[in-house]
Amino acid sequence: xxxxxxxxxxxxxxxxxxxxxxxxxxxxxxxxxxxxxxxxxxxxxxxxxxxxxxxxxxxxxxxxxxxxxxxxxxxxxxxxxxxxxxxxxxxxxxxxxxxxxxxxxxxxxxxxxxxxxxxxxxxxxxxxxxxxxxxxxxxxxxxxxxxxxxxxxxxxxxxxxxxxxxxxxxxxxxxxxxxxxxxxxxxxxxxxxxxxxxxxxxxxxxxxxxxxxxxxxxxxxxxxxxxxxxxxxxxxxxxxxxxxxxxxxxxxxxxxxxxxxxxxxxxxxxxxxxxxxxxxxxxxxxxxxxxxxxxxxxxxxxxxxxxxxxxxxxxxxxxxxxxxxxxxxxxxxxxxxxxxxxxxxxxxxxxxxxxxxxxxxxxxxxxxxxxxxxxxxxxxxxxxxxxxxxxxxxxxxxxxxxxxxxxxxxxxxxxxxxxxxxxxxxxxxxxxxxxxxxxxxxxxxxxxxxxxxxxxxxxxxxxxxxxxxxxxxxxxxxxxxxxxxxxxxxxxxxxxxxxxxxxxxxxxxxxxxxxxxxxxxxxxxxxxxxxxxxxxxxxxxxxxxxxxxxxxxxxxxxxxxxxxxxxxxxxxxxxxxxxxxxxxxx
Length: 586
What we know:
It contains 22 helices and 7 strands. The protein has helices at residues 38-41, 45-61, 81-85, 98-105, 122-138, 147-172, 195-209, 227-242, 270-288, 299-308, 324-331, 344-347, 369-377, 381-384, 405-411, 417-421, 446-459, 463-476, 487-501, 508-515, 520-524, 572-575, and strands at residues 315-322, 367-368, 387-388, 425-426, 438-445, 527-536, 548-559. Helix 17 (446-459) runs antiparallel to helix 18 and helix 18 (463-476) runs parallel beside helix 19.
């Protein structure tokens, strides 16, 4: 079965310029000795598919929590930046990585080269949007495509741009809205739109694209956006609009007369209702079109399938990559080492399989290996589907020597055993993967919208409706139903479910910021960063369970937090052009 592999292989070189309003045909740049040009690319359907494919690759890849080595920070962020910054994993080595630098010194508008050191390659957003417009403006040239196909492609490109704006919305607040290809004779100094204008534009683009998209694509075109993705982008944008960071009378820091770039200027409960309505629409559409929360009664298998297996019926949209680079450099915990392990803070978000709290040692308290393995075996299935215990084979790849402790330890050669082990080597997204090179990172998974509804209903003082949707996710995880109805307590329970269900799916960093969590500077993003430290038998370095003597919790480093970090900085090189107003504190 042919699959629409819209993400180019890792060897693809993407050419982008440092200015996001670049006017060169970067994605169609003519190779030396070639007659490749716009007219050539759009001369046949087959050739046009390469431009469509790259539009997907550009639009969906930006900001993905890969460990790509992009020194210009325009595509895959270095060192798993987003996962590190969220407090899900610890960054302990490699002081040249963005993750290490930001966790210890914060984001900056200029890293010394005019580029921002942040959680986003700002310019790449607009290079992607420009590519999408080039497809829209040229797809009608294709002679062997039907009018219906061409209109669908235009809707796809429109939706991919809406996705990029939604990603910028939650990172920056209001951003410049580019609604056409900018030519050299046009005024390219487009100022930031207000927060409301940015939100309205995202919703408008989704609504305009929706009628021309299918509910499902045939198997040969799997991976392309559908009506459900249009609904999902709307729902995500409206949830961020409802959360406290934006849904407030006053901003997190003053931007003077420009507060409307980062704050709505009112705390309005209708925004929570809008989030409920949009997320319910996603759920209703999904259930009517063959999507579902996977729940066969085997929580580890069900969760592992939902987050890992390509083409499963819970994922509405995924970033797909087929290349060994994905296995080596996304998870890279077990497939070569070098990326760091789960943080102690993240481990504490998980419950035991019976729904009770696990009791971990205090700082410096020594416990033996028997205690460690007893407690690890008690953990809930979502932990076991996401991490490997020290010295144990991967729960999510049972009986597979490729995922055995000894084999994995042998490949963890960059960072030392202790750094990689931490509170679990990260194996999420590789359930029963064997040696496959398919990487299937979920961008929109149906579970998200059940938690959206649970969160928003609780804020609307409707705990019964919140629990109905929350417990769908709890039951799949094999945990007992929540019955709590106190608003503040239930809010904390829902937020904890987000942390566990969506570990390393690019939610946590933006969740904690937009919730304005009270501990954000004291253990989540900033403050004491902790992990397990192990003692080994005869210095064997933990190849198998027999090599472990004991463990404790230790502080690894102090993380950085400042109020300015709620939103990301625009690159100083763009601010200096005098059209972008910088976010406060940079």
